[in-house]
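From the methods appendix. Each design record in this collection lists the tokenized structure first, followed by the designed amino acid sequence. Records were kept in a plain field format so they could be parsed without special tools. The example shown here is representative of the layout used throughout.

RECORD:
FOLD TOKENS (626 positions):
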């Protein structure tokens, strides 16, 4: 899949697929546990390597290789944090090392991750976890401006699906590592891990001065931390299920299995249950950490000169700087420079991924991503402040029904389940019952028919549009010329808008009974009443103009602005979605083209007023993703 320069939708879909396997504190925890599981001799060796590598960066890097209790506002980065920064907050080992050593914002990211770790540990409640991730992602977008858009043209954090049920490990690993294969987690772990082993081995050669040895070790640690990020991703349930199908299927399946868990079998026959981002369990953390430990032990053996990494001589050998291969932009694997035999024992411990599309494939779940066609119906109940005539001040209630067709684009939950990037245009038919208030206020009238009410029953052509906004309603439309000149900048604005906006007060709030969201400015409905022939009618009694009631003919335009939305139910199939939601909305209705029908004598048309309303809409909608 390649970027389409003049289309927003492909760019947004690519960003939507930047799904994380584990949140930052989980990546850090897995790395930390792996180091804790090292034997005392290995722990001492790793500490010595860390002290040499941090030479010149003592104020930025922690005094010890890892800090078990870093607090909520860490002032230094330990080695365990590097695997959390890798991939999600950088695009290559060299980029990661630059961010770790040189940038100010990365310390803010570490503090946000520490707070998220505390928040997740404090609750088992699903809605509280969702809100904690939402708060963290909002803060991360502010600290790391490229956070939501760093992944682009590949599925590098995922496992490639198995092509058939009898695919053997050697065939599968070869497919993952072959030049030209799609970027994938197996391939990236292998590339960076072997590069780290090579550089660790170079650091042990005789004749190096302290500065040269420090450079080799720092580069080796950077490559290994980046490799470990992908090794950890391999053990996330949503990444094992297999990355195939439309964008909505891939994202939905990823999110479903990460939360619900998945039983897997490793290539060497071991069974385990895995979860995914924000749902890491202690029992699986200890198991995954053991694989981190095995990878680190190879690095330490290479640094001690006990493990020789042989180059195949295909490309130029790495120098004493961290690898610069860009996982955010490169679409395919490059040829590896090293023999693969060293990494096979570690890869054999990884889970065999799900089958590709076809018989025996894991059940798939769709998310709200992509272009859709749909239908929508609603039941409306509005309170009005009177009628169109200025002397109609009695409040009343209007009930109505609505049926519509929709066309739009979904981009829900890209970073987390609180996101809402739904964009649609809608057209349909609306019918209202008569208002409960009467056309005169000072004496009772008999409700013998709807004409005696302030607003008799009527129907309208209805139109509705929804679009998130970055700073103020409609700004994405005004900024649309950026699509021609800076499509990625525009896509970043759209992504931020879908996750609550620059001031993220419109991000969803999860509760045990459903999701609440402020949506004022995102959606507007317009209804055109009286478009048929004859037009709509209502009665007015103004003694200053006529001694009897007047029958007026009119058209009107009503605007409706949803304020608060509550979603109780949402269900998915593989290509469709349905949901039930309630909206609190407000708006106004202006009468137009008013004329007097009765009495037939020449009487001045009464001066009319705007009718304001506030009410509730119960909405059911169904969407089919194309």
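DESIGN:
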């Amino acid at each position: 899949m390649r970027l389409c320069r003049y289309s927003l939708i492909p760019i947004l879909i690519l960003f939507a697929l930047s799904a994380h396997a584990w949140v930052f504190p989980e990546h850090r925890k897995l790395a930390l546990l792996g180091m804790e599981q090292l034997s005392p001799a290995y722990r001492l060796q790793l500490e010595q390597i860390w002290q040499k590598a941090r030479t010149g960066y003592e104020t930025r890097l922690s005094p010890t290789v890892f800090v078990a209790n870093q607090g909520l506002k860490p002032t230094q980065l330990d080695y365990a944090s590097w695997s959390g920064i890798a991939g999600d907050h950088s695009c290559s080992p060299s980029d990661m090392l630059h961010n770790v050593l040189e940038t100010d914002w990365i310390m803010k990211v570490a503090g946000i991750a520490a707070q998220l770790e505390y928040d997740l540990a404090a609750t088992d409640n699903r809605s509280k976890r969702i809100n904690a991730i939402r708060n963290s992602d909002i803060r991360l977008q502010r600290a790391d401006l490229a956070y939501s858009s760093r992944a682009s043209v590949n599925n590098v954090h995922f496992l490639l699906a198995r092509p058939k049920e009898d695919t053997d490990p050697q065939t599968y690993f070869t497919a993952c590592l072959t030049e030209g294969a799609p970027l994938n987690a197996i391939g990236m772990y292998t590339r960076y891990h072997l590069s780290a082993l090579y550089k660790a081995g170079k650091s042990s050669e005789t004749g190096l001065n302290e500065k040269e040895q420090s450079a080799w070790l720092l580069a080796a640690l950077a490559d290994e931390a980046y490799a470990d990020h992908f090794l950890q991703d391999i053990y996330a349930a949503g990444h094992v299920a297999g990355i195939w199908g439309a964008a909505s299927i891939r994202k939905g399946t990823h999110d479903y299995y990460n939360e619900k868990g998945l039983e897997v079998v490793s290539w060497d026959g071991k069974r385990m249950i895995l979860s995914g981002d924000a749902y890491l369990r202690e029992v699986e953390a200890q198991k995954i950490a053991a694989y981190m430990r095995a990878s680190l032990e190879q690095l330490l053996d290479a640094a001690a000169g006990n493990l020789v990494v042989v180059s195949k001589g295909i490309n130029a050998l790495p120098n004493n700087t961290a690898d610069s291969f860009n996982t955010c932009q490169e679409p395919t694997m490059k040829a590896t420079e090293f023999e693969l035999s060293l990494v096979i024992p570690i890869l054999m411990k990884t889970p065999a991924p799900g089958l590709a599309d076809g018989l025996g494939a894991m059940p798939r779940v769709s998310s709200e991503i992509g272009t859709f066609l749909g239908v929508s119906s609603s039941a409306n109940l509005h309170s009005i402040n009177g009628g169109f005539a200025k002397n109609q001040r009695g409040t009343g209630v209007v009930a109505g029904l609505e049926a519509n067709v929709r066309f739009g684009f979904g981009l829900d939950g890209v970073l987390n389940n609180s996101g809402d990037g739904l964009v649609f245009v809608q057209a349909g038919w609306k019918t209202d019952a008569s208002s409960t208030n009467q056309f005169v206020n000072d004496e009772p009238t008999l409700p013998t028919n709807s004409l005696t009410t302030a607003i008799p029953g009527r129907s309208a052509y209805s139109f509705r549009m929804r679009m998130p906004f970055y700073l103020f309603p409609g700004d994405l439309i005004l900024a649309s010329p950026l699509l021609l000149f800076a499509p990625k900048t525009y896509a970043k604005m759209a992504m931020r808008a879908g996750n609550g906006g620059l001031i993220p007060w419109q991000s969803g709030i999860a509760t045990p009974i459903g999701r609440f969201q402020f949506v004022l400015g995102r959606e507007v409905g317009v209804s055109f009443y009286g478009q048929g022939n004859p037009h709509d009618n209502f009665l007015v009694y103004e003694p200053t103009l006529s001694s009897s009631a007047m029958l007026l003919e009119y058209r009107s335009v009503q605007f409706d602005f949803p304020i608060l939305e509550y979603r109780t139910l949402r269900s998915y199939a593989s290509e469709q979605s349905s949901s039930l939601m309630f909206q609190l909305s407000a708006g106004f209705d202006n009468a137009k083209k008013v004329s007097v029908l009765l009495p037939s004598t020449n009487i001045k048309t009464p001066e009319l007023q705007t009718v304001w309303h506030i009410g509730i809409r119960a909405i059911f909608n169904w969407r089919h993703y194309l």
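APPENDIX NOTE: The mean pLDDT is 87.
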